[in-house]
Amino acid sequence: MSERALVLGGGGAAGNAWVIGVIAGLFEGGLDVTEADLIIGTSAGSTAAAQISSATPTQLLAEILSAAPPQRTGPIRVGGPAPIGPAANHMEMMSAVIDAAEDAADMRRRMGAAALQTDAASHSAAQAQWRATIAARLPSQQWPQRRMLIPAVDAHTGEPVVFDRHSGIDLVDAVAASTSNGFGVPPYSIGGRRYINGGYRRNENADLAAGHARVLVLSPFGGRSLHPLDWGTHLAAQADELRAGGSRVEAIFPDSGSQNVLGGGMEVMDLSRRRPSAQAGYTQGAALAGQLSEFWR
């Protein structure tokens, strides 16, 4: 059994900042979780996974805290220039697909089909813009030597895919695919296939850490999922699977201070929440460093 796995779940622009804050707080407290043998990053967590593989948590946190406050003059954005449109509409579309689906596989197929109906004429320009946005976020565009997994979903089939440095695609493309919500950010094209957000598989995808003795999960959404419990996609189900395989699992959820600034839903897409979310995450991580030391080391 391999040793340590770090799992970074999705959670929009604010969730990404919270994850970076927590990791920086742990780091300042003497616990460097970026040394994990495996890092799994989904959606906003895939951006964080790529970021911590090529810059220190302290540097990443400083960049968030020093960034100029965003100007809120248009649609809510997911961390760059590509707008996703009103968050309420996005939530309504997702909820409608989930309500109509028989199970998780059917939901992914329906989500992919709906995403593929986006305006093809605007897709090329949107993809170029989204790729540039992702590239600008990453300190390095090279896959790390340390093992990293980035899940996405094939929009044509609804089947999950997992990218790594052996997949033959650029790290920027893997992250861009995992962060494409399929609606305001259209399905992302790689090699003739189009992909949507890895969170449509599972928001954390912690089950991909099977075979690791210790699994630490950072979940900006607190382990919650919009999916029915009987689909088995919630983090609790993933943790049960891992523990059944012999893994020890610990999860960090936003505490009350972090939750107040992250918000409980699509507010996590709001760029203005990044700085306070990072600060709250840092405070939370620093407080947890000692408590998690025995587990991680």
Q: Explain this structure to me?
A:
It is a single chain. Strands 1, 2, 3, 4, 5, 6, 7 and 8 form an 8-stranded mixed beta sheet that branches. The protein has 297 residues and is of the alpha/beta class. α1 packs parallel to α2 (44-52) and α6 crosses α7 (171-178). Residues 73-87 have low confidence and may be disordered. The two termini are 15 Å apart. It is 43% helix and 14% strand.
Outline the fold blueprint:
Blueprint (H helix, E strand, L loop, with lengths): L1 E7 L3 H17 L9 E4 L2 H9 L4 H10 L20 H14 L3 H12 L4 H18 L9 E8 L5 E4 L7 H8 L9 E3 L2 E5 L14 E7 L16 H10 L3 E5 L3 H7 L11 H23 L1
Parallel strand pairs: 1-2, 1-7, 2-3, 7-8
Antiparallel strand pairs: 3-4, 3-6, 5-6
Helix pairs in contact: 1-2, 1-3, 1-10, 2-7, 3-10, 4-5, 6-7, 9-10
